[in-house]
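ok so i was messing around last nite and threw this chain in just to see what happens. nothing serious, just curious
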Amino acid sequence: MLSIVIPTLNEEKYLPRLLESIKKQGFSDFEIIIADDNSKDNTVNIAKRFSAKIISGGLPAKARNNGAKVAKGDVILFLDADVILPKGFLKKAINVFEKRKLDIGTFFLVPKKSKIAAFLFNLLYNYPIVVFEKILPHAAMAILVKKDIFFEVGGFDEEITLGEDHYFARQVNKKGKFGIIKTKVLISTRRFRKDGWVKTFFKYWSCEVYMTLIGPPKKNNFGKRFSTYFEK
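result:
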């Protein structure tokens, strides 16, 4: 069984698109867990319409951890609320995951509608993560992982202020096998539009350098600069 965990906070605009794309997958052996951080809009009602299990959330790391604790599946797919799964995604992803005997996998991220944004993501994210696949794992917005190894590494570090998903992938890779499943996940560019493309890429680049040279950015250190980045 597959458990799909989705952190949410006021996601009434994006969540229906994701849940509808899951519904159309033609894949039946799964559950959906919405880890909600007290949304004030229709997020919870939307989740109920799709028969999702609703639990208490928080910032992304805490929400994902809470979701994993109640997951019934032996494999967990963590998704951001503003992504969309292409047709046939789940079946293909699970097949590749099992065939390659992966413990954790991630995917190519492709912005919807914008060819320029897609080019930038290929250049600055998708191609580099393939180059560094064997030595420096990266994983974001869509992460597939075995539940047993998730708990073995202690889940996501809730003290990390940015890049906790990449750090999690690297921790799992120390005990298991990481791989990039070359299947596309359609994503929103809302954070980039809100904060600016240059500023946002620089923020991620700074975090990457800091994490590589010093360690994951946490509260009360360099990471304080990123502390509100994911508070939607």
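not much to say yet. The first strand starts at residue 2 and ends at 8.
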